[in-house]
Amino acid sequence: MTDVLTEEELKSHLIRYPEWHRESVGGVACVRRIWIFDNFIDAFRFAGRVAELAEKYNHHPQLTVSWGELAVAWWSHDAGGVTQADLEMVALCDHLST
Ligand SMILES: C[C@H](O)[C@H](O)[C@H]1CNC2=NC(N)=NC(=O)C2=N1
C-alpha cells in the first residue's frame, strides 16, 4: 500500500495543479476539480474519458455529473487518503482537458 501524503506534501504538490483543491469525502482527504461545460452531455462525455483513464490505470475517482458540470475527486481507497497515485491521475486528467 502506498503512503498517504502529509498535508504539507499535498499542499506543495497542488501548487502545480491550481485547479485542484484539497477537500474531503466522508472525512477522507481527496483532491477535487470541477470542469464547466455548456450542457449536460458534454459533461457526461468528459466523465466517460476520465472513466476510461481510471480503467486503464486501475485507479478510480468519484465522478459527479450534473448539468454543465463535472466534479472529479481522487483519493486512494486502500490507503485512506491522497497518495502519489492520485497525483498521477490528476496530471493525466489535466492532460485530457488541454
Ligand atoms: C481490486 C482493485 O484493483 C482495487 O480495488 C483498486 C481499484 N481502484 C481504486 N481506486 C482508488 N481510487 N483507490 C483504490 O484503492 C483502488 N483500488
UniProtKB/TrEMBL annotation:
GO terms for biological process: tetrahydrobiopterin biosynthetic process. It holds the Pfam family Pterin_4a. Keywords: Lyase. It comes from the Bacteria. Its EC number is 4.2.1.96. GO terms for molecular function: 4-alpha-hydroxytetrahydrobiopterin dehydratase activity. It is an enzyme of class 4 (lyase). InterPro entries: PCD_sf, Pterin_deHydtase. It catalyses: (4aS,6R)-4a-hydroxy-L-erythro-5,6,7,8-tetrahydrobiopterin = (6R)-L-erythro-6,7-dihydrobiopterin + H2O. Belongs to the pterin-4-alpha-carbinolamine dehydratase family. This is 4a-hydroxytetrahydrobiopterin dehydratase. It comes from Thalassolituus maritimus.
